[in-house]
Inverse folding.
């Protein structure tokens, strides 16, 4: 479960970094007091929360990797190359080297993957050592394609990078970062030096020095970061310079991404690179709900689509029995037999508590604490409502809910943010017995209601709530703000 959570964080984490960095692209370094926001804009005029080329190209890779494809195979590389070209035809922010390679690829005959690689190799020969961050920025997802095999992962990273950035240092940077993502997903460790043996011996010492130079230092030292080595250094510095708070380790995800953006220059790319690794380390559960709800972009993906791509890639195309996260509707006995509950929150009538079978609630924001079908909240043709999905499992096993206190506090904060925006909120899980009442308690606590009173008044409106257990006691411990 924890490993799946971390894998689910890879593409979503990258997309959040990307969208957070977009407004500040090519700007100066920013000071600590500056809080980056997913405000959109930037030199290419993106919408708020929209991710840019970095994640769009990662999505192109993921759309191929999601089937379980071997990313070193000619067939997979043809598909990726074609998706790159299709994306670029309508994109406003194709990088310089990538654009040059694509222009060359469009001429000529033969398999598109081969043509693209040849164009990329010719460009690398023509300007040795001048290699941008355009392959590194999209490589994190590659780590999920063969997550148990470090050599196969390195080979895949090299093959996919080769399509546009064939310079040896471009390839090395992708191999090192992809291996770090793979290790973070499988072990929960952050280790960039661990992949040194995967790059050619002649360059290992140089890479060791570059990584050492960036470890634990202010990322703003790397405020010129278009070069792939400097981009890697900036992202690694942002991750390792940001402290991991002992009382809330998962908050490192958002804090380190903010520092990646404060680096300045190619902010969206540095934060996209950092976000892929931070998402792999801390997981989907660490991604702030406020970012998760806003992020979207090429391919029509929102958070759940990015999570689905990561999980499909991890599982080589297989998905869970209930069809989540791709299925339009989830249909199981538990879902069908849930009581059709709809009651106001005891301390805020603008928040309705319910189940998957609740009657129409009329709210303009929905927080789902359980798995839900893609069309169950906003079916096709219906105006999409503000919806956020929370990774929360109805269990007493602490290992299955990473960062539980962090997640429940963020749910409560998200209810408060929606309310501050003037929205009414439907807060639900499957049967409103454990997750919904626990999240409702967390919100009461945030409003300053004493724990005992919050519990008693909640049980009065939801008499079938379990009223005990891990989620309930963790929620009751949420601190008022
Ligand atoms: Mg970009």
């Amino acid at each position: 479960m924890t490993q799946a959570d971390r894998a689910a964080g890879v593409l979503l984490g990258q997309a959040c970094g990307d969208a957070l960095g977009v407004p500040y692209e090519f700007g100066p370094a920013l000071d600590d007091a500056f809080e980056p926001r997913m405000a959109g804009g930037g030199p290419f005029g993106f919408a708020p929360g929209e991710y840019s080329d970095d994640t769009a190209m990662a999505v192109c890779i993921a759309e191929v990797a999601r089937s379980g494809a071997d990313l070193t195979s000619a067939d997979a590389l043809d598909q990726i190359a074609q998706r790159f070209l299709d994306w670029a035809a309508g994109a406003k922010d194709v990088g310089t080297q990538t654009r040059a390679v694509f222009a060359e690829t469009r001429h000529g005959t033969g398999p598109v993957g081969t043509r693209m690689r040849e164009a990329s190799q010719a460009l690398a020969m023509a300007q040795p050592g001048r290699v941008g961050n355009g392959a590194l920025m999209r490589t994190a997802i590659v780590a999920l394609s063969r997550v148990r095999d470090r050599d196969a992962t390195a080979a895949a990273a090299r093959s996919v990078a080769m399509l546009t950035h064939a310079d040896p240092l471009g390839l090395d940077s992708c191999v090192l970062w992809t291996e770090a993502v793979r290790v973070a997903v499988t072990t929960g460790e952050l280790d960039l030096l661990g992949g040194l043996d995967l790059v050619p011996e002649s360059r290992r010492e140089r890479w060791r020095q570059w990584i050492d130079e960036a470890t634990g230092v202010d990322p703003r030292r790397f405020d010129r970061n278009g070069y792939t080595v400097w981009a890697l250094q900036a992202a690694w510095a942002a991750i390792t310079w940001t402290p991991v708070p002992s009382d809330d380790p998962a908050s490192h995800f958002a804090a380190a991404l903010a520092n990646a953006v404060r680096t300045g220059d190619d902010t969206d790319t540095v934060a996209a690179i950092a976000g892929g690794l931070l998402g792999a380390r801390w997981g989907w559960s660490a991604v702030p709900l406020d970012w998760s709800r806003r992020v979207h972009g090429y391919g029509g993906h929102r958070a759940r689509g990015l999570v689905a791509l990561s999980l499909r890639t991890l599982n080589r195309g297989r998905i869970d029995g209930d069809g989540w996260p791709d299925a339009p509707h989830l249909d199981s006995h538990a879902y069908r037999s849930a009581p059709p509950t709809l009651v106001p929150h005891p301390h805020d009538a603008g928040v309705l508590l319910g189940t998957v079978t609740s009657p129409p609630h009329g709210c303009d924001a929905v927080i789902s604490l359980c798995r839900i079908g893609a069309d169950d909240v906003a079916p096709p043709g219906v105006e999409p409502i503000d919806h956020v999905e929370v990774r929360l499992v109805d269990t007493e096993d602490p290992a299955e809910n990473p960062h539980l206190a962090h997640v429940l506090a963020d749910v409560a904060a998200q209810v408060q943010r929606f309310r501050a925006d003037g929205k009414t909120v439907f807060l639900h899980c499957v049967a409103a017995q454990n997750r919904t009442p626990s999240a409702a308690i967390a919100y009461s606590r945030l409003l300053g209601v004493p724990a005992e009173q919050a519990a008693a008044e909640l049980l009065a409106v939801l008499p079938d709530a379990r009223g005990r257990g891990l989620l309930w006691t963790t929620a009751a411990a949420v601190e008022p703000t």
